[in-house]
Specification:
With 364 residues, this protein is mainly alpha-helical. 45% of the residues lie in helices and 10% in strands. The chain is built from 14 helices and eight strands. It is elongated, with a radius of gyration of 29 Å.
Length: 364
């Protein structure tokens, strides 16, 4: 049974006796912290789990080096982890021992980031990195619980999906593109919905010109070309837009050529293409700024508005879950038919028609 007592000034101390007869103690300003700590120790004792008190003294920085070496992540994902570590985690936690971190400490860190103007998404990502690091420490029996789990985090408002208007913006954008290759890329992306890495990693050998099928297998990343795993939905076959078949065939000289290549045959660099081609074309066409990813939204939106069912759109885009594709459901031509019919039926039951107090000629 743990012994908890109050110490001056305004501190609490818990003492727990271990099965080997030794004692462990913790002092903290909050009674709940020492009480929860004591319960964890007693629970471990009952399960026969032993934890070396000295093991948790390793600092977050030291543990990060060991944790990082075990990560099996895509290079781009790992680069994002490292960015959050250097910017927001390392300056605060590097020298802090793992076993001294409390939930209150981590929540205070979140509060400090919010007060400093750090965006909600960056805060969420930073906490996710720290929580992942500490979760492994729990699994290794270095600390009893993850103090970064299930915190109250700021919510990132989700901006509405923007897509190109088919009758005005899309033709204007194509007309503003001076290079044929860039025009074909935008036309192709706005019909197929390929991601940027899929566009720039697409080789001529991945197209079955006879059947008009595009095998989406390769993706270009900052670390180079990689192939999608065979069981991923991203690995898929999609139709080749008929009006682009011949123009695309004239763009390459060999089957291993990248279809949308920069000068010299290398894959296009996203930031360079965006600043040199995409943004100037938007300005010339009189279109407010859209991210490159809007071409993918455009493909999905047009299809749904034409009545293509969401499962076919999901297959085209390579979404793992239909839930992701449901974001376009409101664009379906019959999306509100039943609601409108219900309202109309109710209105027909009203006799005489409701005028809401307006007389003929009134504008309200």
């Amino acid at each position: 049974m743990a012994y908890i007592r109050r110490l001056p000034p305004q501190k609490w101390n818990a003492v727990v006796r271990l099965p080997n007869g030794k004692r462990r103690s913790l002092t903290h300003p909050l009674r709940k912290v020492v009480a929860d700590w004591a319960k964890d120790i007693e629970r471990d004792n009952a399960r026969g789990v032993t934890r070396d008190p000295k093991a948790g003294r390793i600092t977050v920085g030291e543990w990060h080096e060991r944790w990082r070496a075990t990560r099996l992540l895509e290079p781009s994902t790992l680069a994002g982890y490292e960015s959050r570590w250097r910017t927001h985690i390392e300056p605060v936690w590097k020298t802090v021992p793992l076993n001294t971190i409390t939930r209150t400490d981590v929540q205070a860190w979140v509060r400090a980031m919010v007060d400093a103007g750090v965006g909600p998404r960056v805060v969420q990502q930073s906490v996710a990195v720290l929580s992942s690091l500490l979760a492994v420490a729990v699994a290794e029996n270095l600390i009893p619980a993850n103090p970064a789990a299930r915190l109250k985090l700021p919510r990132a408002p989700k901006p509405p999906d923007r897509y190109l208007d088919r009758d005005v913006e899309f033709p204007a954008l194509l007309a503003a593109l001076t290079q044929g290759r860039d025009r074909l890329l935008v036309d192709f992306a706005c019909h197929t919905g390929l991601r940027w890495g899929e566009l720039t990693g697409l080789r001529a050998s991945r197209i079955n010109w006879l059947r008009g099928i595009v095998h989406v297998v390769d993706v270009w990343t900052p670390a180079g070309r990689r192939e999608y795993p065979k069981r991923r939905a991203s690995r898929r076959d999609i139709p080749l837009p008929e009006h682009l078949k011949e123009p695309l065939r004239q763009m390459y000289s060999g089957p291993e050529d990248f279809l949308f290549a920069a000068d010299g045959g290398q894959p296009l660099h996203e930031a360079n293409w965006r600043n040199r081609v995409w943004v100037p074309a938007l300005k010339t066409a009189g279109i407010n700024y859209l991210p490159i990813h809007a071409m993918r939204h455009t493909a999905a939106s047009w299809l749904v508005m034409d009545g293509v069912d969401l499962f076919r759109v999901q297959a085209l885009l390579g979404h793992e879950s239909i839930t992701t594709t449901m974001r376009y459901a409101h664009l379906a031509p019959a999306a509100f038919d039943q609601i409108q019919a219900s309202w109309k039926g109710r209105q027909n039951d009203v006799d005489p028609p409701v005028t809401h107090g307006l007389q003929e000629g009134d504008t309200g």
